[in-house]
Design brief:
Layout (H helix, E strand, L loop, with lengths): L1 H24 L13 H15 L3 H13 L29 H14 L6 H15 L19 H7 L7 H10 L4 H8 L6 E3 H4 L18 H10 L8 H8 L2 E3 L16 H7 L6 H4 L5 H12 L1 H16 L20
Antiparallel strand pairs: 1-2
Bound molecules: protoporphyrin IX containing FE and 2-acetamido-2-deoxy-beta-D-glucopyranose (NAG) (3 copies).
């Protein structure tokens, strides 16, 4: 019939139009299929190389993507070497790492597909590969982000949640970038891998919240071990202070790490329920009914945790990407072209 034919034709035109628009206005897993078909293999190879050199690097790369996305969206801003940039912000200084590995990945990618792949996308792929290589879930990484021009210490101070934030403040910072309470809990499950410095948790060890006593919510044996690792810094010189501040311990204590490739597990949530949270920001996740409920769910179901985690990672990767002709494709991740 004529009428339905023309309706069919119209639908087809609309579909093409929307496809065209879609390709320009949102991220897609196929973004580099024609311009850099081997991209995923190149990145995975470089992540594996870095991981076998230093197991912790998987954690460090995952965290880089998080800290990138929370400040001006996932735009590679954390990678820029500029004065008063994100690298020297409160949560990043002496803390975030992995920049040399990102340089290596970028170099390998540029060698094969010059000027095509953004540093922001490299961080997103490397984060996924880091989760997979440590035994976590996989997901399709959406691509097509472009790199930003600015990196701001002040913006990072304001938007990256800190280890000393309340649950309300952490949740607020997630809400500001479009993430919800489930994302807070599932993504905190990243702390199933990696290390933290004494400086990030010694507030709990001797004089918690001006009480003159340690945080009573911490397991006593764990407290004892941590007090030995990070002695009360007030009695040391400033230089020694920061040396102690730099000492590290696993975020997820006693996780079965004998076989390091199977370390991304739900043991972190079991620890939370057993008074073995390391950071204050981990401990406070028990402070609301909703978050505690999720912790209980994840602690008994790896599938629940992995499903939610993968979904939340995709959501996080969608924070305010620069699309189309906005931003640029950096040649060197450390500086704008
Ligand atoms: C919920 C709020 C969060 C807070 C307050 C927080 C805070 C921290 C802190 C203080 C450290 C230790 C840093 C140091 O000692 O130098 C850390 C490490 C880490 N964080 Fe988080 N984090 C949060 C959420 C996340 C999210 C969403 C991810 C990833 C999606 C993540 C991934 C990691 C990883 C993998 C490490 C270990 C890094 C390494 O060993 O190099 N964190 N985090
Ligand atoms: C951000 O945090 C750093 C490190 O703690 C601090 O020195 C600085 O005053 C803060 N800077 C801005 C611009 O907010
Ligand atoms: C702590 O580690 C950072 C690198 O992460 C380094 O720049 C700093 O010098 C270290 N501090 C001390 C006192 O060792
Ligand atoms: C929460 O955020 C407010 C506003 O930025 C700040 O004044 C307060 O110190 C924060 N409190 C905690 C415990 O995180």
């Amino acid at each position: 019939m004529k009428k339905s034919n023309s309706f069919y034709g119209y639908s087809l035109i609309m579909a093409f139009f929307m496809l065209f628009l879609g390709a320009r206005s949102q991220l897609t897993p196929y973004f580099y299929d024609r311009t850099c078909p081997n991209l995923l293999n190149i990145v995975r190879y470089e992540v594996e190389k870095a991981f076998f050199k230093e197991i912790r690097m998987a954690a460090s790369l995952l965290r880089l993507h998080f800290h990138d996305c929370f400040v001006n969206g996932c735009d590679g801003s954390i990678l820029l070497d500029v004065s008063d940039g994100e690298k020297v912000s409160f949560s990043n200084l002496n803390s975030v790492r992995g920049f040399e590995v990102v340089d290596d990945i970028k170099r390998a990618v540029e060698y094969e597909c010059s000027g095509v792949v953004s540093c922001a996308d490299i961080l997103a792929i490397a984060a996924r590969d880091s989760v997979v290589i440590t035994g976590g879930p996989t997901w399709n990484v959406l691509l097509g982000r472009r790199d930003g021009f600015v990196s701001s210490k002040a913006a990072a101070n304001n938007s990256i949640p800190s280890a000393f934030d309340s649950l309300y403040n952490i949740t607020s910072k997630f809400k500001k970038v479009g993430l919800d309470v489930t994302d807070v809990v599932s993504l905190s499950g990243s702390h199933t891998i990696g290390l933290a410095r004494c400086a990030a948790f010694n507030n709990r060890l001797f004089n918690f919240e001006q009480t003159g006593r340690p945080d009573s919510s911490m397991d006593e044996h764990m407290l004892f071990q941590l007090q030995l690792l990070c002695p009360n810094v007030s009695s040391y010189s400033a230089d020694l202070d920061s040396k102690i501040g730099n000492l590290t311990t696993p975020l997820d204590r006693d996780s079965p790490i004998g076989f390091p490739t199977n370390d991304f597990d739900n043991h972190y949530f079991q620890n939370l329920l057993n008074r073995k949270a390391l950071l204050s920001s981990d401990q406070v996740l028990l402070n609301s009914y909703e978050t505690k409920r999720l912790i209980q769910d994840y602690s008994i179901s790896t599938d629940r945790f992995f499903d939610d985690f993968a979904k939340s990672m995709v959501k996080m990767g969608n924070i305010s990407p620069l699309l189309g002709s906005r931003g640029q494709i950096r040649k060197n991740c450390r500086r704008v072209n």
